[in-house]
């Protein structure tokens, strides 16, 4: 009916399509095929609001416009990358929708995977939307099949108490999945995708952890590794965790940060909402921050085998308490693939430091 009744006779017509883009590869291809019969790819804008977030849009500028990142951003210096989404509340009456899809379809297969592409892609030939999306597709096609022992699923205790959730549901509300990119830049670097509901905090961030310092004369390993963290929400920020001298008479090391907190640095600038920005891009005809059909297919090819096995009950969701970090097995998995957690250091946004 949109095709029949709403097409502009002059000028342009653009159709914004919201997720979910299917439930697996077959249903996504069916949907894409139906849309393709009605509209051209240039008219279709598959929207993923994470691509409209300020820090996500800063990723390519940060990576490719700063000289000191260029030689560091590879397997020689980076040990692991975490892309994390955490909510401190449960389904709260939306269990009917959520239970049909689960945390992987709802968050990881789309939002977090899009962020991974921007973290891992090569420099595009230009800022043309097609050149950027070409590089994202190359990353997706280089991702290896997911290993069984690099998946941890969970369901928070109390999920089944939501009256909108079917009785006896085994749908995961938490998942940690390790993705591995088989190319020259990232071979051997685990990309740890973590998402969950009813956890101990609300945040979304990218955490790039660097390797240990060789010939460590200051015992930096005791303080923790260098990390570059991009906080997507809340309190947008980018900060680098560094080992520095503890102020005072003693020659001892401690961990601190170089911090760009948007709320403090850009006090007079209103950061637009993600949908606000993406809808403006739609009006402008800029498809850079929208998902192309071959990109969508490549994303589903990664996750469909795992999702089908979960749907058949071949993976068990571990029960975890509300307000926790999730199943302990998830932390054990991240440690096993190389992540070293820093104990005793907590980043506090400068705006909160002033209040303290």
From TrEMBL:
Gene3D superfamilies: Dihydrodipicolinate Reductase, domain 2, NAD(P)-binding Rossmann-like Domain. It catalyses: D-glucose 6-phosphate + NADP(+) = 6-phospho-D-glucono-1,5-lactone + NADPH + H(+). SUPFAM superfamilies: Glyceraldehyde-3-phosphate dehydrogenase-like, C-terminal domain, NAD(P)-binding Rossmann-fold domains. InterPro entries: G6P_DH, G6P_DH_AS, G6P_DH_C, G6P_DH_NAD-bd, NAD(P)-bd_dom_sf. This is Glucose-6-phosphate 1-dehydrogenase. Its EC number is 1.1.1.49. Signal peptide: none annotated. It is an enzyme of class 1 (oxidoreductase). Pfam families: G6PD_C, G6PD_N. Residues 60-338 form the Glucose-6-phosphate dehydrogenase C-terminal domain. Catalyzes the rate-limiting step of the oxidative pentose-phosphate pathway, which represents a route for the dissimilation of carbohydrates besides glycolysis. One of its GO terms (biological process) is pentose-phosphate shunt, oxidative branch. GO terms for molecular function: glucose-6-phosphate dehydrogenase activity; NADP binding.
């Amino acid at each position: 009916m949109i095709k029949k009744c709403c097409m502009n006779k002059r000028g342009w017509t653009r159709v914004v399509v919201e997720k979910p883009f299917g439930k697996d590869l077959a249903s996504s291809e069916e949907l894409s095929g139906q849309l393709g019969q009605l509209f051209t790819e240039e008219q279709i804008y598959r929207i993923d609001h994470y691509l409209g977030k300020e820090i996500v849009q800063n990723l390519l500028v940060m990576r490719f416009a700063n000289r000191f990142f260029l030689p560091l951003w590879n397997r020689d210096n980076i040990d692991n990358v975490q892309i994390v989404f955490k909510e401190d509340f449960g389904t709260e009456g939306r269990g009917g929708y959520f239970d049909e899809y689960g945390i992987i379809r709802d968050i990881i297969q789309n939002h977090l995977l899009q962020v991974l592409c921007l973290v891992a892609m090569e420099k595009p030939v230009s800022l043309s939307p097609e050149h950027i999306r070409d590089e994202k597709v190359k990353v997706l096609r280089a991702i290896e099949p997911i290993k069984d022992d690099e998946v941890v699923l969970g369901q928070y205790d109390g999920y089944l108490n939501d009256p909108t959730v079917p009785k006896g549901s085994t749908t995961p509300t938490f998942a940690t999945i390790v993705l591995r990119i088989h190319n020259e830049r990232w071979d051997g670097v685990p990309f740890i995708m973590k998402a969950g509901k009813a956890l101990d905090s609300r945040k979304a961030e990218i955490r790039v952890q660097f390797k240990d310092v060789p010939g460590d004369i200051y015992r930096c390993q005791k303080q923790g590794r260098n990390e570059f963290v991009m906080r997507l929400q809340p309190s947008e920020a980018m900060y680098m965790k560094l080992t520095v001298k503890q102020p005072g008479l003693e020659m001892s090391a401690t961990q601190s940060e170089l911090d760009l907190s948007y709320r403090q640095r850009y006090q007079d600038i209103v950061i637009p909402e993600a949908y606000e920005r993406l809808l403006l891009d739609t009006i402008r005809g800029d498809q850079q921050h929208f998902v192309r059909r071959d990109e969508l297919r490549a994303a589903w090819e990664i996750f469909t085998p795992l999702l089908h096995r979960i749907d058949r009950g071949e993976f068990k969701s571990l029960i975890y308490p509300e307000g926790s970090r999730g199943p302990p097995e998830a932390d054990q998995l991240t440690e096993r693939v190389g992540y070293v957690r820093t104990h005793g250091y907590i980043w506090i946004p400068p705006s909160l430091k002033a209040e303290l």
